[in-house]
Amino acid sequence: MNRATLLTLAGCLVGGTILTGCGKQGGPGGPPQGGTPEVSVVTVQLQRVALSTELPGRVSASRTAEVRPQVGGIIQERLFTEGSDVKAGAVLYQIDPASYQAAYDGATAALAKAEANVAPLRLKAERFKELLESEAVSKQDYDDASAAQKLAEAEINLAKAALETAHINLAYTKVTAPISGRIGRSAVTDGALVTASQPVPLATIQQLDPVYVDVTQSSSEVLRLRRALESGQLSSNGGQAKVQLLLDDGSQYPEPGTLKFSEAFVDPGTGSVTLRTLFPNPKLLLLPGLFVRSVLEEGIKEQGILVPQRGVTRNPAGQAMVMVVGAEEKVEARVIKADRTVGDDWLVQDGLQAGDRVILEGTQKARPGTVVKAVPFGAKPAPAPAAAEKQ
Q: End of a domain among 281, 302, 323?
């Protein structure tokens, strides 16, 4: 191979290298290969945010009454069906009334005897009073007759009180329901001996419509809520706060409730305050002892900013941060203050303003200072550019 041929081949190689280098996209300092990265953003706005808190609680009956006998005796008959609804005043048990009927009859007879004894003594006292005016009897005789009359009248009053006591005890042989509600199982059967005011109740009645749900809230949360309301960060809904229930299976109870009151003291053992809420229970779905979660309304934040949770990350220091598209379409890292969630969003207290564009998708391609193309979150992606035709 001569020298001229070698020079020709070398020239071709150098020319091909130069052409290849010119065909490459994006040299040092040029735009990235594939063009400007695209990110999905959401533009935050000021909005009215209803704040609530979820607290665990237990259902309890609005009224509970333990049925106990007020006189002793043998149970003759149980007059209710266990687990049924009873009305106030309905007879539940019949205690053998024989001895109490006899006491009532005796008290009736004693009253009649006392009334019969007072009649002649009253007439004697009246006659002695007339005779005293003509000095036919002594003053002492009249005083004795008058005292005997008053004693007999007092015995009548005593007999009436005894008769009333006997009547009350006779009535107590019919054990009645003190309140209306659902009665549970009976602790005694026919033929059982019961005593007055015994410690073990015969049965228990519970009023299940409406019902109470008692929940506990930490004292620190109560203080935070009060301070937020006093400072104007939150505004009250006015009237009684509404409450929603989440049942043990995760479903929502259809009837809303109301917050009735909160205890005026903090439990020293748990550092919490008990809140009592009231719920209608027409279908008796809520039973005493059932575990539920109560969602209580705290207030309204008039100028709130919400950011989807997927757009919030943590920096190495543990601070919440977001990526935003700032001036000149460049990415900025922004540290925010977000102390609570509202649904699927974070409520931002500081670090963002209305109109800021927060990146939700494409953060792996967006580094601080990178120029990006911002598109609304949820918009369809732009079609990829067609491949260049081969020369």
A: 302
Would 10 be classed as within a structural domain?
no
CATH code where residue 77 lies: 2.40.50.100
Which residues form the domain of 261? 51-62+208-302
Q: What is the pLDDT of residue 166?
A: 95
The count of domains in the chain is: 4
| 370 and 271 inside one domain | no
Q: What is the mean pLDDT of the chain?
A: 82
Q: How far apart are CA 175 and CA 93, in angstroms?
A: 5
pLDDT band for position 29 (cuts 50, 70, 90): very low
What's the pLDDT tens digit per position in 158-181? Answer: 999 999 999 999 999 999 999 999
Residue 271: how many other CB atoms lie within 10 Å: 11
- Specify if 15 maps to a domain: no
107, 141: one domain: yes
Q: How would you label 324-347 residue by residue, b for 16+ Cβ within 10 Å and e otherwise?
A: bbeeeeebeebebebeeeeeebbb
Question: For residues 229 and 222, is the Cβ–Cβ distance under 8 A?
Answer: no
Distance from the first to the final alpha carbon of the chain: 33
Q: Average of pLDDT values for 187-216?
A: 93
pLDDT of residue 20: 44
